[in-house]
Design a protein that fits this description.
38% of the residues lie in helices and 21% in strands. It is of the alpha/beta class and 279 residues long. The strands form 2 sheets. The protein has a 6-stranded mixed β-sheet, with helices on both faces. It has a 4-stranded antiparallel β-sheet with strand order 2-1-4-5, covered by helices on one side. The protein binds adenosine-5'-triphosphate. The site of adenosine-5'-triphosphate (ATP) has 12 residues, from helix 1.
């Protein structure tokens, strides 16, 4: 028995009988209201994990449990009620000619009555700060605004987990930060689980846990601070640490040991001040 919201039990997957295994004996759990970052180099199997969670794909070996249901062809429609997915390119996700139509799409598919639907659209656009764009054409929005609308579309169906699959990859640093702040706030406000899939380690700092994938296997499960401290190991598996981690690593080589591994510039400055004041 488990209380986990999502559980992978010895999952192996390949895209065809003559294809190589893309996931090999992968096991992990994710609790309700937990923020888990899944990182790994290109092709390490991250997106495949996302597609397995909402039943776009099924494993050849092992079992996936979402919200108490084993994911299979009989349960996918129930599973998808709990799982909201946002992908890298928002243009590929838009179906409506206005923001309102677009957010309505998932609700119409679920047969939500019109009154309730309009209410939910208002609420979810408000949650991502896009209420003023109700009648705008999605394709004319900025990249960050498009991703907000995509998140609103997912929120409208009241999911229990949101999966962002490289959802900020096409945004500039400001847009990335804004989306991360939005989802961080939503997770707390709505008591959601959040899975962020990325190869950018700057995006893991707020996660409660990090799953590092390498060649289809779980290479490490840990917290962001620990992951940041493994610069050399991460380089071996094709991942580069952000500036603060590289800087702290270089200081350590020079014999300057900081009190804790900094996760951002503010923490780095604090640690440097503390070190300086002890000199
Ligand atoms: N439809 C498909 N058919 C065959 N092979 C596929 C298919 N989709 C993905 N693959 C292969 O499966 C492996 C894992 O792909 P996946 O997209 O899960 O990796 P990823 O870690 O998300 O990569 P990226 O960071 O580039 O998005 C890769 O080797 C990829 O080429």
């Amino acid at each position: 028995m488990t209380n986990s919201f999502i559980e992978f039990r010895n999952v192996s997957f390949r895209y065809g009988k003559d294809q190589p295994w893309v996931l090999k004996n992968v096991s992990f759990t994710i609790d309700s209201n937990e923020w888990v970052a899944v990182i790994g180099h290109n092709g390490s199997g991250k997106s495949t994990i996302a597609k397995l969670i909402n039943g776009l794909l099924f494993p050849q070996e092992g079992e996936i449990i979402v919200d108490g249901l084993t994911v299979n062809e009989h349960t996918i429609w129930d599973v998808r009620k709990s799982v909201g997915m946002v992908f890298q390119n928002p243009d590929n996700q838009f179906v409506g000619t206005t923001v309102r139509d677009d957010v309505a799409f998932g609700l119409e598919n679920r047969g939500v009555p019109r009154e309730d639907m309009l209410k939910r659209i208002d609420v979810s656009l408000g949650q991502v700060g896009m209420s003023d764009y109700l009648l705008h054409e999605p394709h004319r929005l900025s990249g960050g605004q498009k991703q907000r609308v995509a998140i609103a579309g997912v929120l409208a169906i009241s999911p229990k987990v949101i999966i962002l699959d490289e959802a900020t990859a096409m945004l500039d640093p400001k847009g990335r930060l804004e989306i991360m702040q939005t989802v961080s706030h939503l997770r707390q406000a709505e008591q959601l689980a959040l899975i962020t899939i990325t190869h950018d380690l700057n995006e893991i700092t707020r996660a409660s846990r990090v799953i590092v994938m390498n060649k289809g296997e779980v290479w490490l499960e840990s917290n962001p601070r620990d992951v940041f401290s493994r610069k050399e190991d991460l380089l071996q598996i094709g991942l580069d640490t952000p500036f603060v981690a590289t800087f702290a690593d270089e200081l350590s080589r020079q014999g300057i040991k900081l009190g804790k591994q900094p996760l951002n510039h503010e923490e780095l400055m604090d640690e440097l001040w503390t070190y300086h004041s002890k000199m």
